[in-house]
């Protein structure tokens, strides 16, 4: 009899789709894959640990574990990664031309704790000398006033962090000149519509991001897969079963996206783009497994601690099921 496991996740077409459809099943598991919006998924997991396993914010996971909340145990599967240099937007009237100009400015973000914000603060500090205490941070709804924090945490020492008024949004404040810049996870709609009041800090962001990868070796991890600890402790084999299934699903998607007789996506230049990506990332932009990712996890634990989110510097090994460390 297979173990029933509820799973909350995202249906990434080239990495998790085969798990979402059931084409790939973890050994010994009857996986009930439920697809949810990211913000809802993370809120339900952090507040209620609603699913047996699921995709989760790595930054929030570090924060929780460092403060004694051990309801989850991780497995070294990282289905979401993203460069974030492209996601800093500035007011065209702000006079901000380079990252160093953000010092002393007022910058909006959805939540201080989210992984995208962690990475932006990290490269601002380590690449441009703008540490978090040099910025006035404001948080709240990005494009709509409604907003609810997923997991409460104290304001880091020395950091100015305030919630924006409940009747406005970060984008509205940026357009009105009430914010100098905005850290987002996607291009705001008003920017996509061509608002003259908003532009990217790095308009030609791809060379900046590629340079960052070449210098650091980091394609920033955003999400990790976690198992509810009570489920894991009762079924310790589940960690390796899920890890292997995620690897299989990723390979399944790779075969589809690399099949060039019929293009898998609506991009006429998909093949040369894949050739560039495979050359830069050694044929796998999304490596799973602990060994392949230890260096970037070590960096993230350091960033979380130095930014005042984690209460202590975590060791990467303590974040993951021991059965998966040799993967």
Summarize the structure.
This protein is an alpha/beta fold and 327 residues long. Helices cover 34% and strands 16% of the residues.
How does the SSE layout of this entry go?
Blueprint: E1 3-9, H1 17-21, E2 29-35, H2 38-48, E3 53-57, H3 58-66, E4 72-75, E5 88-91, E6 106-109, H4 115-128, E7 136-139, E8 160-163, H5 170-175, E9 181-183, H6 189-192, E10 198-200, H7 205-216, E11 223-228, H8 229-234, H9 238-257, H10 270-280, H11 294-306
Parallel strand pairs: 1-2, 1-3, 6-7, 6-9, 7-8
Antiparallel strand pairs: 3-11, 4-11, 5-9, 5-10
Query: Largest sheet, described in full?
Result: 6 strands, mixed
Q: Which CATH class of the largest domain is shown? A: Alpha Beta
| Strand arrangement, major sheet | 8-7-6-9-5-10
Distance between the termini: 26 Å
Strand content: 15-25%
Describe the protein in words.
With 327 residues, this protein is of the alpha/beta class. The chain has helices at residues 17-21, 38-48, 58-66, 115-128, 170-175, 189-192, 205-216, 229-234, 238-257, 270-280, 294-306, and strands at 3-9, 29-35, 53-57, 72-75, 88-91, 106-109, 136-139, 160-163, 181-183, 198-200, 223-228.
């Amino acid at each position: 009899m297979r173990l029933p496991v509820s799973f909350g996740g995202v249906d990434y077409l080239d990495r998790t789709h085969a798990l979402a459809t059931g084409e790939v099943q973890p050994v010994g598991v009857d996986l009930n894959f439920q697809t949810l919006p990211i913000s809802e998924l993370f809120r339900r997991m952090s507040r209620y640990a609603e699913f047996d396993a699921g995709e989760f914010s790595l930054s929030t996971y570090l924060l929780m574990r460092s403060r004694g909340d051990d309801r989850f145990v991780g497995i070294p599967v990282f289905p979401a990664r993203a460069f974030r240099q492209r996601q800093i937007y500035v007011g065209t009237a702000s006079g901000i031309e380079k990252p160093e100009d953000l010092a002393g400015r007022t910058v909006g973000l959805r939540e201080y704790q989210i992984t995208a914000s962690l990475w932006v603060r990290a490269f601002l500090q380590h690449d441009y000398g703008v540490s978090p205490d040099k910025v006035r941070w404001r948080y709240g709804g990005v494009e709509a006033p409604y907003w609810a924090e997923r997991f409460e945490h104290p304001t880091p020492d020395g950091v100015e962090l305030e919630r924006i008024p409940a009747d406005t949004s970060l984008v509205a404040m940026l357009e009105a000149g009430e914010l100098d810049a905005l850290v987002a996870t996607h291009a705001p709609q008003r920017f996509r519509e061509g608002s003259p009041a908003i532009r990217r800090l790095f308009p030609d962001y791809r060379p900046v991001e590629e340079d960052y990868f070449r210098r650091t070796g980091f394609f920033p991890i955003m999400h990790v897969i976690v198992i509810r600890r009570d489920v894991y402790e009762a079924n310790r084999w589940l960690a390796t079963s899920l890890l292997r299934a995620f690897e299989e699903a990723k390979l399944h998607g790779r075969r589809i996206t690399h099949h060039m007789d019929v293009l898998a996506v609506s991009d006429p230049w998909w093949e040369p783009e894949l050739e560039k990506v495979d050359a830069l990332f050694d044929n796998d932009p999304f490596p799973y497994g602990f060994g392949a990712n230890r260096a970037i996890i070590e960096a993230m634990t350091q960033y979380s601690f130095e930014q005042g989110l984690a209460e202590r510097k975590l060791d990467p090994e303590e974040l993951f099921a021991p059965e998966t460390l040799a993967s």
